[in-house]
Amino acid sequence: MFPLNKQKEKKQYDITPQHLSPVVLHRSKRMVLDSIGVGLIGSTTDVFELALQHCKLMYAADHISSVYGRRATKLSPTLAAFVNGVATHSMDFDDTWHPCTHPSGTVLPAVLSLMDMMPAHSKPTGLDFLLAFNVGIEIQGRLMRFSNEANNIPKRFHPPTVVGTIGSAAACARLLSLNPSQCSHALAIAASLAGAPMANAATQCKPLHIGNASRFGLEAALLASQGLEASPLVLDAVMGVAGFDAFYEDYVPQPLELSQNDGHVFLLEEQEMGFKRFPAHLGMHWVADAATSVHKLLVEHGSGNISPAEIKDILLSVPKSKYINRPFPDSEHEARHSFQFNACTALLDGEVTVQSFTPAAMRRPDLLSLLSRVRLQHPQDNPASFNLMYGEIQVTLAGGDVVKRRCDTFYGHWRNPLTNESLRKKFRSNAGVVLSSEGVERLIDVVENVDRIGDIGAPACVYKRSITCLKYNYFLQF
């Protein structure tokens, strides 16, 4: 792995803000904006409230780090990282990368909480913040690219609980300017705090996966900074000794190659991030887009509304993945992980939205009637990979006509990313649940100019406004 400290050593190379290309800066700021937005709307959910009340009840007050959507509430840095991570994933609305993980939700809450605890005279600049954030994202991508298993929809461990914990530790280690030995210990400590089973997907426990990954990564870096040591071999492949390959059995690490100018090229330079248009498991977006196309066609050639009486049969062609095959979901979390629910919602309404997962929407007789008509098939050419899969819906009408539509790459996928305007629209909708419209726009401005905070060459008005708004409780509460 590459060193995360600021001190240059022989045969090692620094990662500095200068390695953040315009493309990486642009893409990582998009990630920060989206992650804050889904965290803010996530602060209105039941699971976030449960996590927050638990922390306030069980732990002594420690007024250091800010909490999403709660102006008057502060917690210890590790607990703030935890609850903000829970908020980020509470609706399964956060970003997704390939190989599959949710990278931002495990890193951003930890970095924000750590910055809150740093002394006023040593707060990081905006570029320092973005560099630490990108180091945390990069570590996750590199680790997963050392495994073929990581390319597939997961079956054993929820990926953010594995690579996200280590990514959080790496980002915090960078922000703390730990030396190479301390960084190695931080990542190894994080590995001992990593991992959660996929059996808890589609439950209220799944958001805790992201919260714990953020919290434990921060704790690992703080413990390493205090001198706690761990095995330097955890991320290596050592025969007979389980390290990171305990999570991915085919894990084979490789040395990182320098570019021609001896600089590091971030993976984010090569591959965009996937941003969701509605709050559900990533696999749902293929079938929802295909079903939306069928809805539009039927509306154009029918009465204007979809009636279950018009539909005899619904056949979905999707990858085989047990935890997202849920014919009749009983909760909002199960619905977010149900091919059937999301396809039928899109077919009935022409879209899937935040409101689609409310109890009233889930109990609609027309929706339940459509669900009873759904069948699944798993074609051999449709692998369980977010980079290769497709979603297809075939609707047989009562009169015998058949309508079929297929989605190979939905809008929001890393191959077809949201435009800046679409991303801002999503952010405005999410953040506007908690903030005033003025606060939302100020927050967009701050994030889009965050790389200029602390830069003495920046216009004074931008610098002063950003610092005044943030007060280094970055982005949280306006």
Task: Characterise the protein shown here.
It is found in: Mitochondrion. Homodimer. InterPro entries: MmgE/PrpD_sf (IPR036148), MmgE/PrpD_sf_1 (IPR042183), MmgE/PrpD_sf_2 (IPR042188), MmgE_PrpD (IPR005656), MmgE_PrpD_C (IPR045337), MmgE_PrpD_N (IPR045336). The chain is an alpha+beta fold. Helices cover 45% and strands 7% of the residues. The strands form 2 sheets. The chain has a 4-stranded mixed sheet with strand order 4-3-5-6. Strand 1 and strand 2 form a beta hairpin. Helix 3 packs antiparallel against helix 4, helix 5 runs antiparallel to helix 6 and helix 10 packs parallel to helix 12. The N terminus is likely disordered.
Mean pLDDT equals 90
Main sheet characteristics:
4 strands, mixed
Strand content: 5-15%
How many strand elements? 6
Shape: globular
Q: Low-confidence segments, ≥5 residues, pLDDT <50?
A: 1-11, 455-474
Q: Specify the number of helices.
A: 17
Round the Cα radius of gyration to an integer and report it. Answer: 23 Å
Q: What's the N-to-C terminus distance?
A: 38 Å
Topology of this protein?
Blueprint: H1 22-42, H2 46-58, E1 65-67, E2 70-75, H3 77-89, H4 103-117, H5 126-145, H6 159-175, H7 180-192, H8 206-225, H9 267-270, H10 284-300, E3 311-317, H11 332-335, H12 339-349, H13 359-362, H14 365-371, E4 374-377, E5 391-397, E6 402-407, H15 420-431, H16 437-448, H17 460-470
Parallel strand pairs: 3-4
Antiparallel strand pairs: 1-2, 3-5, 5-6
Helix pairs in contact: 1-3, 1-15, 2-3, 3-4, 3-8, 4-5, 4-6, 4-8, 5-6, 6-7, 6-8, 7-8, 10-12, 12-14, 15-16, 16-17
